[in-house]
Design goal:
Elements lengths: L5 H4 L5 H11 L14 H11 L18 H5 L22 H7 L27 H12 L7 H21 L8 E5 L5 H9 L4 E4 L2 H14 L4 E4 L8 H7 L2 E5 L2 H14 L4 E5 L16 H10 L6 E3 L9 H13 L4 E3 L6 H6 L4 E4 L1 H4 L4
Parallel strand pairs: 1-2, 1-8, 2-3, 3-4, 4-5, 5-6, 6-7
Helix pairs in contact: 7-8, 10-11
Length: 368
């Protein structure tokens, strides 16, 4: 086969124009007489004006010949959804909330409902999406306060998993650690999702706040245990004994005497933890380490049973040495309870002997 002289076919042409010219020239019997019908620049301009080629329908394969139209349609590309207007969304069939919104019952008639996205279908709601819409609606309707029950359950499960992992590393059992959900400043609506998720121990900082919201919650869920983790005034001792199952902030002689009288009058005693000022900080409550032994003796003489020690390490300092010190103090005085560890350090506390951890942010989220 004779090789063609491509330079002779397209003299002076370069780039895309030369390629087109050569391809057109091949297959012609008189290639030596061919010339470009127009200058190369014009050819390139015409190529740009043409735009992208239109898609061509594929040929039927050998298997598709003889098949019914329905069977052949199964091999075709799915029909694309028509463009949707700005801020449009698809909502489930017979969505009651959307209907109320469109009728203006929420005071925002005319707004586009934003429920969830759905692939294009010719009529109605895609059957496969109905379960999804039910989950969306259920989550929306289950909102109680600032989060859903599902979110509360996820947070609770995550904290419990971290506690179990830390306990395993310390060769302890996870059921040795009591998780106290610190519910201070949170209202009943924010607390109920955690109760529904299975949490039963809650901590409050103030007697007045606890008295305002917990009687109703405890009527709904009688097996809840309530812990006072904030400072307690002596004149509130009687009310605290009646309301709380545990008090973690016994820290001075006057409070020992007030609690002893309140317990004798009520005929019961909550769990008691002596709070230790483990970092010797002036702004914090708690018994000084040097005074701990004398305070424990006074509590015993007053008829109180002390179950353990509580401490809050200094902020922005590695908490492990302070947890280790509290564990040593509890061991030295024959106490089994160690109430220590919060959202940022409860895993470390568990590995160093904590029996009670007080977790707020990790369970309720950051306060706004």
């Amino acid at each position: 086969m004779q090789r063609r002289n491509e330079d002779a076919i397209c003299p002076g042409a370069t780039g895309a124009a030369r390629f087109i010219c050569i391809m057109n020239g091949h297959g012609q019997k008189q290639a030596e007489t061919m010339r470009l019908p127009c200058p190369p620049g014009v050819v390139l301009a015409e190529m740009g004006a043409m735009g992208a080629p239109a898609p061509r329908r594929g040929r039927l394969s050998g298997e598709q010949h003889g098949q019914s139209p329905r069977a052949r349609d199964a091999h075709q590309a799915p029909q694309q959804a028509p463009p949707r207007g700005r801020r449009k969304a698809v909502v489930p069939e017979n969505d009651a909330a959307t209907g109320r919104q469109q009728r203006g019952e929420f005071g925002d008639a005319g707004l586009d409902p934003l429920v969830a996205e759905q692939p294009y279908v010719r009529q109605g709601v895609a059957p496969g999406h109905r379960p999804f819409y039910r989950r969306v609606a259920s989550a929306r309707n289950a909102r109680d306060g600032n989060e859903t029950m599902s979110e509360a359950a996820d947070r609770l499960a995550d904290v419990k998993t971290h506690i179990a992992d830390a306990a395993k590393r310390a060769q302890r059992r996870a059921d040795e650690i009591c998780l106290i959900a610190v519910s201070k400043t949170h209202d009943a609506a924010a607390i109920r999702p955690l109760i529904a998720a299975g949490q039963r121990h809650f901590g409050e900082n103030r007697v007045q706040e606890a008295a305002a919201k917990w009687p109703e919650l405890r009527t709904e869920t009688p097996d809840i245990a309530l812990h006072l983790i904030g400072q307690l005034q002596s004149n509130k001792a009687e009310e605290a004994v009646a309301l709380f199952d545990a008090i973690h902030s016994l820290d001075r002689s006057s409070l020992v005497q007030a609690l002893a009288k309140a317990c004798q009058k009520a005929g019961k005693q909550p769990q008691l933890f002596v709070q230790v000022n483990i970092g010797d900080e002036e702004q914090k409550g708690g018994c000084a380490v040097a005074d701990l032994s004398a305070l424990l003796t006074e509590a015993k003489d007053a008829g109180l049973t002390i179950d353990g020690l509580m401490a809050i390490p200094p902020a922005d300092i590695e908490p492990a040495p302070f947890f280790a010190l509290l564990d040593e103090l509890a061991e030295r005085h024959g106490l089994t309870g160690r109430s220590m560890g919060m959202s940022g350090d409860y895993e470390t506390a568990v590995m160093l002997g904590a029996t009670h951890v007080r977790v707020g942010t990790a369970l309720f989220g950051v306060r706004e």
